[in-house]
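INFO worker-7 received task bundle
INFO bundle size: 2
INFO processing item 0
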Amino acid sequence: MRALLFVDMEDNVAGPVKSLAGFLIRRYPSQLRSITLASNSNIHHPLYVDFAELMDDDPPLANLVFSQPSEYLRHFDDAALWAHKIVLRDVNNREKGTEKEFIHVRINISGSPLECSETFPSIGRVRVRHRGILLTIKGTVIRSGAIKMYEGERTYQCHKCSHMFPIYPELESRNSVTLPSICPSQRLKPCGGTKFTYVENTIICHDYQEIKIQESTQVLGVGVIPRSIPVILMDDLVDIVKAGDDVIVSGILTARWSPDLKDVRCNLDPILIANHVRRTNELKSDIDIPDEIIMKFKQFWSNFRDTPLKGRNSILRGICPQVFGLFTVKLAVALTLIGGVKHVDVSGTKVRGESHLLLIGDPGTGKSQFLKFAAKLSNRSVITTGLGSTSAGLTVTAVKDGGEWMLEAGALVLADGGLCCIDEFDSMREHDRATIHEAMEQQTISVAKAGLVTTLSTRTIVFGATNPKGHYDPEQSLSVNTTLSGPLLSRFDIVLVLLDTKNPEWDAVVSSHILSEREQDKGERDEDLQHVWPLPMLRRYIHFVKGFFRPFLTKEAEKVISSYYQLQRRSATQNAARTTVRMLESLIRLAQAHARLMFRNEVTQLDAIMAILCIESSMTTSGIVDSVGNTLHSNFMENPDLEYAKQEKLILEKLKSIDEFVDINSA
C-alpha cells in the first residue's frame, strides 16, 4: 500500500520533496547506490546527511528542516525513497538492485552552525523554546529499555473522493489517532469530505526503544544536580547504544503526558525523538594539547637528560601538592592514571592495560584528598562511596520505570574509559562485591536481570580507599585487616597501607609544610615546570603520554621482571595470595606506565625496578628490600638518581640468586 501511495505521489510530488530529492542525488549518489545494492535483510536503511552541506546547497530549505523538523524530516524520507527509485532504474541497467521500503535520512549537525549553544544546549538548559526545532544534546546513557513495537502510521480513505492519506499517531497523547475535520486532498477543487475509513493492512510499525541520557558531571559546578531526559530511538537507531555510552543525539523535542496515576497531577514530560545518534566513547577527552605544549614537554625532559628521576619527581610534586611527602602514593597515583598497554593475543584473549590502586589507611592520612585530586586529573571520572552510590550501586541494576524493566548503569559503567574513585571501599553492597571482580579484571559486566541479558563495558581505572578493620596489625594479612577478600585484593595492582604512627620529627616537618602552604596562598605561585607542575599541565601531560606512547619491554626489563616473579613464587610469605600471574601482569603494566611517565617508548631496567619497588610497597614484609618503611612517611629525596643507583645494585644482587638457581636446575 505504501508503494501504491508513492507511485501516486510521483505524479504530484510536493515541492520540498523534489528539492530534497535533487539534493540527495547531487550530493549522496554513492550512499543511494549502496542502499540500492544492499540486501533486504534489513528493512530500515539509514542515509546520513551533513546539515552543513544542506546549508551550502540550499539555505532556505535547510532553515525549514531546522525550524519545522516534524514535517520536513518526513519529506526528507519521502525524497530519499524517490531518489532511491531513480537510482534503482539506473543501477538495474548494469547490476541487480532491489527496491527498499524504508529509507531514513539521518541529519548530522557536526561542523554546522547548529553547534551553537542555543541549538546544542546542556540537558539542564533545555526549555520550552527548544520545542519543535532540530535540537542536539550530549550526555551519558544511564538507562536503556527493551525494544518494543510502535505504530507509526496508518492510512485512511475519504468516502467522497476516495483520496487516501496517512495519519500519524500522536506521541504526545500516547499514540492516540486524530482524524482531520475535512478531506486533506490537494486538488484544485476540495471535495470537503468529512467521513473516512481505515484502509486494511496499512498500519506501519516501527522498532521502538527508550533510553535516558544524563548530562556529564564533568561540566557541572559543585552542588549542581545532573539532569536527564528520555530519548526515543526508532527503526535503525534501536540497540546501537548501551548504558554507559557517551552520545550526541539530534532530534525533535516534544512533550508526552505522564502516566495517569491516582492522586497525582498529570504533567507534560519533555522527551526527545532521535533522528541521529553518534557514540563518542572514543572521543571522551576534551583536553586540548597544542604543539607548543608538546615542545614544552620535550624541552623539560631535555633539561633533565642526565638526571631523569629528578625530572620525574618534579612532575610528581604537582600531584596533590597540599599533602606533604607521600612520594610512594603520588608515584602510585601517577602510574595508575597513566596505565599500561592493552594486550590481545592471537586467540583473542584480552589483558587489560588499566591499573587499579587501593589505599588502606588510618583516618586523616589524606586518602580522600588523593581520590579527589585524581578525579581532577582524569578527563572522565566518577566519585562515589561504597554505600553512598545510587540504586544501581557500583555496577548495574534492573529498575522498573512505568511498568517496564530497564537497565540502570552504576558508577563503574558510567566511568567507562575513565576513572572511578570509590571511598569507603569496604562498605560495598553484597551485590556489588559479587560482580566487581569481573568488572575490574575482564572489564565487562554480564547482566541477566528481569529478562534483560547483556554485557556492558567497564574499561575503568578503579581507585579505592578504605579504613582498616579496627587497629591495623602488621603481622596479619590484608584480608584480615580489612573486610576485603583475597581474590578482590588481587585485582589491585598496588595496595598501599598508610599507618598514622607517632613520629615527632615527621610531625614537625608536616606542620611546617601546612603553615608555609597557607603563606603561599597569599602570594603568587611559581608556574615553572622545573619546580611544581600546575594541574592543567599535569592533565595535558598524562593525556598526551597515554595516547602517544606504546612502550615495549627490552630484554633487560624482561629479565628483571621474570626473576622477581620467580622469587615471589618461591617465597611462601603472607602475601602469597597476590603472588599469582596477576602480579606478573601488574609488573608489566606498572613498568609500561613508568616508561610513559618518563616520556619514553621503551621499558628499560629502571622502569622494571621502579615497578618492583611499587609492588614491594604493597607488602607488609619485603623479600627484596631490606626496609620497606611506612608509606605515610615516604618523602622526596634530594638526589633520587643517586639513591636509585644504590637500590638498583641491591635489587640486582638479590635477583642474581634466582638466575643462578635457574641455571643449576636447567643443568
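INFO item 0 finished
INFO processing item 1
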Amino acid sequence: MRIPLLAGLLLPLLLSAGSDVTGEEVARKPNIVLMMVDDLGIGDIGCYGNDTIRTPNVDRLASEGVKLTQHIAAAPLCTPSRAAFMTGRYAVRSGMGSTGRVQVLLFLGGSGGLPATETTFAKRLQQQGYTTGLVGKWHLGVNCERRGDHCHHPNQHGFSYYYGLPFTLFNDCVPGEGTDVLADLHQTLQILSMMLGAGLFTLVCARVFGLLEINLGLLVLLFSLGILATAVWFIPLKFLPAWNCILMRNQEVIEQPMTVETVPQRLLGEAQNFIKRNADRPFLLFFSLVHVHIPLFKTPPFAGKSSHGRYGDNLEEMDWMIGQITETVDSLGLANSTLMYFTSDHGGHLEDSDSKVGQKGGWNGIYKGGKAMGGWEGGIRVPGIFRWPGRLPAGKVVDEPTSLMDLYPTLKYLAEDARPDRHLDGHNLMPLLEGNVERSEHEFMFHYCGIYLNAVRWHPPGSDSIFKLHFFSPNFSPPGAGGCYDTKVCLCHGEHVTHHNPPLLYDLFHDPSESRPLTPDTEPRFAEILEQTAKAVERHKQSFTNEQESKGPSAESGTDATSVHSQMTWAKILWKPWLQPCCGTFPFCRCKEDVTNI
C-alpha cells in the first residue's frame, strides 16, 4: 500500500516540475546566429541558380527555411552596408556615407567609424539579457582620439565578446598580391619622392664640385624636409600589413601582422566555441566571414577542387564553414530554438581579376553591375536565408522587397524589446517570414552611392511591378564595359557619373536585369511613377530634418545626409600614429597568437 500512496504523492510534484521546465523552454528567447559573407555574388549560390559551384550547406538552409529573392543591401560597399545592417538605418544617418573617392575606411589608425551615438542590434539584445559575440570582420573603426579609447570597437557597440579582424582582409595582407589602398596615390608619391631625391642629390653634387654655391645648412634643411615628406606617406602605406592586418580578442591585439593562411580555421573555431559556451542561455552570434573577399585563400583541402578556379575553391570552403556552424547548432540540440540567417554585405566584385588567377570576384547572376556600382541591382541584391525549424516554414520563398536593415527591428521583436528607438529604415520581417502577411512593408526603398541618393524603388500597392528610378549612374570604363575596369571600383561624384533627367526607369518584375528602360510611350504610368517617387523622396529627406530637430538645439541643421558629422572625410580616414592599435611598444608592433590550444 505504501508504493501506490507514495506514487500518488509524487505524481503531482513531477507533473508540476515538468510543467515548469516546459514553460521555461517556451518562454526562453531564441538564439540568433547571423552569418555574413564578404563580397558574395547572389549568382554564386546553388539555391539562387548556380549549378556549377557546390554549396550544399547553404542550399540546405534554404530548403529548411525561408529564401528571400529580393533581399537588398543598403549600400554596395563594405563599410556603409555594414553600418546600415548593424543599426537598421541608412548609412548616411550615421555619417558613414562618403562624398568623394574614398568610400570605405582605409586605416585602423584613422579616427572614423560607427559613432558612439548610434545603437546596434547587438546593444539592444545585450540590454535584453543576451550574451552577444562577433567573430570575424568589423571594418567600422576602432579608436577616436587616442590609442586604446576603442570608441568604435565592437565591445562598445554591444558585443560582449569579439574575436577577429577589426579592419578587413585585403591584398596587402599577403606578400605578392599587390596593394588595395590608394594604389595610384602610392605610385604618384613614390615617383615624386624619387624626383625630390634626385633633385637633392644634384644639389649636393653641384656644391661638391663647386658648380653652385649653396649654404650647407640649407642643404641639411632641404634634406630633412625631404625625409619628413617621404616618411609621411611611406610609413602608413609601406607598412600596411603591420598596421591593418591584425587580429584582436576583445580590445587586445593578439596577432600583428596576422598569418592569413590560418585565419579561416581560427574564425570557425572561435564561432563554434562561442555557441558551445553559451548553449544554456540566449545568445547572439554574428559570424562575419572574411570569405570571399580578396586575397583568396589556398586552403589545401579545397584548393583546385572546384570548377571555377580559386574563387570557386573559396566559395566551397565558405559553404563548408557554414555547414560546420549549422552542425554545431544542431548537435547541441539548439536547432528549434535558434534563428539562423545567411547573407552577404553586398554583391560580387566584377572588376577583380588577373591573368594568373582569373576571376577573383563573384558572379551576380542576371543582375546588372556589382560591388561599388551605386544602385545597380548586381551590387545590392544579395542572398537572404532564414532557418528556424518549428517556427518558420521549410522551403518557403519570398519575392517581396526586403533589406539587410530589417534585421535590426526583427531581432528587437524576437528579443521582446519594445522600448522607444530612433528613426529606423528597416521593418520587422517575422510576419512576412511566417506567412502571416504577403506584402513587404517596404513600399519605397532608397539606394545610395556614398551620400548621394542614386536610385529609388517603388512597389505600388496592389501591383506586382517594382519600379526603379536611377537619378544618375556610374560611368563604366572603358566605354562599353560592364564595370569600372580602369579604376577597379566605380565612383559616385563629379565626372565619374552621368545624371539622368528624366531618371532611368525600369520595372524589375518584368526586367530584373535592368536592360530595357521604360519611356512614356512604353509605360502608361510613367508620369505617376515619377510623381509618387518624388513625393517619397521628399518624405525621406524630411525624416532627416525631423531627426535633427528631435535631437534639440545642439544638433546640426540641414535637410540632407551632409547634416550629420561625416566619418568618411580625409581628416578621419587618414592614418594617425597615435591611434594605431599595437600589441607592443609602438612602432615595434609584432606578436603572434598562441594557437596550440586551438
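INFO item 1 finished
INFO post-check item 1: The two ends are 59 Å apart (CA to CA).
INFO post-check item 1: The chain has a mean pLDDT of 90.
INFO worker-7 idle
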